[in-house]
């Protein structure tokens, strides 16, 4: 897509806090907007879509200004929601209950500007054909979100806004729909803002992350940089701290049921096989800090199969916590380990020290 | 033989009133369901007034407004050359005010039940507010629209006090079925009163039965 940017400067007052954001978001790929619930994520998305007008600020997409309300500047601009070229996927899908799936899709097609994806391509990408004649009330939560996503794509948006699209689904349904979201990214290449409070959900999709806490942006940048920042632990209160590694599937071993993944380290990472993977596929693995241990030497005779040489970059200890977080470098990538302060002291860990990182194989499950 | 003139006139008045009230009531109910204006409770109270006021009070104020020296009455005379009092047009205006809450309140609650969510979804699919109203809000509030129409029609048929005051009993012009029954009873013509009353009773029952049967057979799907 184009190298457009979304400029957002908004202030929205709430009884508890104030959403105050001034950011330039790079409109290519997926930007995850993450933060605990009540941090202002959905409000930000609703302001971009035009459903809620901020008290003041400016929202501009590329050269187009959608909202501008300033004491000094006139005229005031507030493009109504239906004239903004954004596609919005709601938490609950919001399919129209009095129409079947085909009519819901047709509703979008009829009002879309020319040049968008064809209904056939969308139906194919999301496997909607068996659902077309069904009423929304007869669909499962996952099917509803797939149909709603298809409907949104058919409006030919230039920006896709996903508002916690999987939060109403159970874990199995989430896993079932995630591959569709990936397919949409690769086939339709839409710049996307993906709001979620679940970091595992966005880790495999997002390129960049914007972290909100109490209405303020606490981090914004490439996903990997954001996820390995140790000082964000407080914000991650509801998240599992961790890091993301990019890798390539080097080998698939169907006998042991393990895939071997090259993450640029001397050793390959072993992870449970995923049906969707093929040798040569580029993948992202999120590793939770608590699944990572640190050793000074390569341990022998141990059940943990993944052992990678690494170097300590940062050590952060929280004042009241018995745990400390350690940021390490593996090849040219980073990972986080959470260990007790006591064991760190015993091992005498210091910055720049060469160590071995141990990762439990099972910790990949479901995330590959 | 029963004189069915009042019956036909009553049906005509109810039909005209219902159609005219749809034109006024739908925008008003829609506004009430969507607005966050501070004026909303005031408008709601005014809309509900005909429910509590004695028909004589409404009739009295309408007679004053229909006076050719009053702005409304004078305007009507200058446009049509006729007075509003004791005319069919006057009856329509009186019935519209008398039946206003029966149109607006079911519509408003139906629109409120639709909620903002489907309308935001429509806006996200590039439907203008007017487009979204006709394609999403109106169909989803369909049963409410039907209920409002039937109740307005039935309520207009049953009115007595207001029409007696502003319409009188001019045959073919303002002599409605309720007035005709009143006159028959006054003149001790019980046979005629019986016939018209029975027709009105049966009709009202059929109307209400159809409302409740519709509610049962086509439960509306919202949300």
Please characterize this protein's 3D structure.
By secondary structure, chain A is an alpha+beta fold. In chain A, 20% of the residues lie in helices and 35% in strands. Chain A has eight helices and 20 strands. The longest helix of chain A has 18 residues, at 171-188. Chain B has helices at 5-34, 40-52, 55-66, 71-80, 88-114, 117-124, 129-140, 142-157, 161-167, 177-186, 190-217. Chain B has eleven helices and no strands. The model of chain B has no long low-confidence stretch (mean pLDDT 88). Helix content of chain B is 78%, strand content 0%. Chain A binds chain B through residues 49-51, 80-83, 86-88, 90, 92, 94-98, 107-108, 111-112, 137, 151-152, 155, and chain B through 117-118, 120-129, 131-132, 135-136, 139-140, 221-223.
Major β-sheet annotation of chain A: 6 strands, mixed
Structural category of chain A: alpha+beta
Number of helices of chain B: 11
Q: Overall 3D geometry of chain B?
A: globular
Structure classification of chain B: mainly alpha
Element string of chain A (H = helix, E = strand): EEEHEEEEHHHEHEHEEHEEEEEEEEHE
Identify the strand order in the major beta sheet of chain A.
7-8-9-3-10-11
Task: Find the biggest chain interface.
Answer: A-B, 25 and 21 residues
Low-confidence stretches of chain A: none
Which stretches of chain B are low in confidence, meaning pLDDT under 50 for 5 or more residues running?
none
Distance between the termini of chain A: 26 Å
> Order of SSEs of chain B, N→C?
HHHHHHHHHHH
Kindly list the characteristics that best describe this protein:
A: alpha+beta; 8 helices; globular; B: 223 residues; mainly alpha; 11 helices
Topology, element by element:
The complex is a heterodimer of chains A (368) and B (223).
Chain A (H helix, E strand, L loop, with lengths): L4 E9 L4 E9 L3 E5 L6 H9 L6 E6 L2 E6 L7 E2 L7 E4 L11 H11 L7 H7 L15 H13 L5 E5 L7 H18 L3 E5 L2 H5 L4 E6 L2 E7 H5 L14 E12 L4 E5 L6 E4 L9 E7 L3 E4 L10 E12 L5 E8 L2 E8 H7 L6 E6 L9
Parallel strand pairs in A: 3-9, 3-10, 7-8, 8-9
Antiparallel strand pairs in A: 1-2, 1-4, 4-5, 5-6, 10-11, 12-13, 12-15, 13-14, 16-20, 17-18, 17-20, 18-19
Chain B lengths: L4 H30 L5 H13 L2 H12 L4 H10 L7 H27 L2 H8 L4 H12 L1 H16 L3 H7 L9 H10 L3 H28 L6
């Amino acid at each position: 897509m184009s190298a457009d940017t979304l400029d957002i400067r908004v202030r929205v007052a709430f009884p508890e806090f104030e959403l105050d954001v001034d950011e330039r978001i790079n409109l290519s790929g997926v930007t995850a907007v993450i933060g605990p619930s009540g941090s202002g994520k959905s409000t930000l998305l609703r302001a971009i879509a035009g459903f809620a007008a901020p008290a003041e600020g400016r929202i501009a997409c590329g050269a187009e200004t959608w909202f501008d309300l300033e004491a000094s500047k006139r005229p005031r601009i507030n493009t109504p929601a239906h004239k903004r070229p954004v596609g919005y996927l709601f938490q609950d899908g919001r399919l129209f209950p009095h129409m079947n799936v085909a009519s819901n899709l047709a509703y979008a097609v009829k009002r879309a500007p020319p040049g968008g994806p064809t209904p056939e391509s969308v139906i194919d990408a999301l496997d909607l054909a068996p659902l077309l004649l069904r009423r929304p009330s007869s669909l499962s939560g996952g099917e509803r979100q797939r149909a709603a996503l298809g409907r949104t794509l058919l409006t030919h948006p230039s920006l896709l806004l996903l508002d916690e699209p999987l939060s109403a689904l159970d874990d199995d349904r989430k896993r079932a729909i995630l591959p569709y979201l990936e397919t949409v990214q690769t086939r339709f290449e839409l710049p996307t803002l993906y709001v979620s409070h679940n970091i595992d959900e966005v880790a495999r999709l997002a390129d960049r992350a914007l972290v909100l806490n109490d209405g303020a942006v606490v981090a914004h940048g490439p996903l990997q940089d954001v996820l390995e920042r140790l000082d964000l632990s407080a914000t991650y209160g509801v998240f599992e701290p961790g890091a993301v590694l990019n890798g390539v599937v080097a080998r698939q071993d169907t006998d042991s049921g393990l895939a071997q993944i090259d993450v640029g380290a001397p050793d390959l990472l072993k992870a449970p096989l995923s049906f969707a993977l093929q040798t040569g596929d580029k993948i992202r693995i999120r590793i939770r800090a608590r699944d990572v241990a640190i050793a000074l030497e390569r341990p022998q005779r141990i059940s943990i199969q993944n052992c990678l040489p690494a170097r300590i970059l940062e050590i952060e200890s929280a004042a009241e916590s018995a745990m400390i977080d350690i940021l390490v470098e593996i090849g040219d990538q980073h990972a986080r380990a959470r260990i007790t302060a006591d064991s760190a002291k015993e091992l005498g860990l210091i910055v720049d020290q060469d160590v071995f990182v141990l990762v439990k194989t099972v910790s990949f499950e479901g995330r590959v | 033989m029963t004189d069915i003139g009042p019956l036909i006139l009553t049906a005509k008045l109810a039909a005209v009133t219902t159609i005219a009230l749809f034109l006024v009531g739908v925008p008003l109910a829609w506004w009430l369901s969507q607005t966050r204006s501070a004026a909303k409770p005031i408008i709601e109270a005014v809309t509900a007034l005909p429910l509590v006021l004695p028909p004589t009070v409404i009739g009295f104020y309408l007679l004053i407004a229909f006076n050719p020296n009053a702005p409304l009455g004078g305007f009507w005379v200058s446009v049509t050359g006729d007075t509003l009092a004791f005319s069919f047009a006057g009856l329509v205006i009186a019935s519209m005010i008398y039946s206003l809450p029966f149109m607006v309140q079911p519509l408003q609650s139906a629109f409120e039940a639709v909620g903002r969510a489907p309308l935001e979804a429509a806006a996200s699919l590039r439907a203008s507010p007017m487009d979204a109203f006709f394609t999403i809000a109106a169909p989803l509030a369909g049963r409410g629209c039907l209920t409002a129409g039937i109740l307005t029609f039935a309520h207009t048929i049953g009115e007595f006090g207001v029409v007696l005051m502003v319409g009188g009993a001019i045959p073919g012009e303002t002599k409605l079925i309720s007035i005709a029954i009143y006159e028959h009873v006054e003149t001790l013509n019980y046979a005629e009163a019986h016939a018209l009353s029975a027709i009105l009773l049966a009709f009202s029952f059929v109307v209400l039965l159809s409302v409740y049967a519709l509610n049962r057979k086509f439960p509306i799907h919202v949300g």
